[in-house]
Amino acid sequence: MDPWTAPLGGETDLPAFAPLRTAADALGRLAAHLHGFDGTLDALHWYAGDTPPGDAPRLRVQARSPDGRLVTLRLCTVDGQPLADVRLRRAGGSATAAGLLTPVPERGESIHRRFAVAAPMLTDHVPGREPVLTTPDLIAFLEDTAADLLRPRFTDGVSSVGTWIGIRHTGPAWLGEHVDVTAEVLEVRGRRFTFDVRAVVGDREIGTGQVGQTLIRT
């Protein structure tokens, strides 16, 4: 039995999973606030911690697009400690990828690319340490790989732009090393694509997370 999934199936109750119960409680309260919302959940960010949400967590608008279709809500404890951010997109429009890509990628399709770490990609901001690949350049590798799955499928006048980044930079890469990147389609929603991405040097992971690409007319 997988030790990570067993507790979720109710077969094991480990004290170490208390943060999951705290998260479930907080998000259940958030869902109650959003009952009847006509739209989709674009992104969710949970702020790690064991602090219970309390009896009266606060919900506030953290950001809103000019047209009101996109809104980020923040769930906080009474004393202002953030619990979760949720980005919502109101219903509206019926744009799809059909006719923009040939063919439209399906969930699970993946692509692999290899990048060489060059001198302009390095940072030496840590005194006494060898320069390493910058986080912006790692993100560029990940985004470029995801976009490369879409580019050969563009129809005339179509391109894509990066619209979501959720990356953890988990390890260093040094000058002359090769970074292998894999991007796998996680979700297709209209013109928006979310990819699971992972970067490794040999058998050592240096980055993981998700990126998003959205199709546009040029």
From TrEMBL:
The record's listing under InterPro entries reads: FlK, FlK-like_dom, HotDog_dom_sf
Q: Taking every annotated instance into account, which residue ranges of this chain make up the domain Fluoroacetyl-CoA-specific thioesterase-like?
A: 124-216
Alphabetical list of SUPFAM superfamilies matching this protein: Thioesterase/thiol ester dehydrase-isomerase (SSF54637)
Top-rank taxon of the source lineage equals Bacteria
Recorded hits in PANTHER family, A to Z, give:
BLR0278 PROTEIN, THIOESTERASE DOMAIN-CONTAINING PROTEIN
Q: What is this protein called?
A: Fluoroacetyl-CoA-specific thioesterase-like domain-containing protein
| Organism for this UniProt entry | Virgisporangium ochraceum
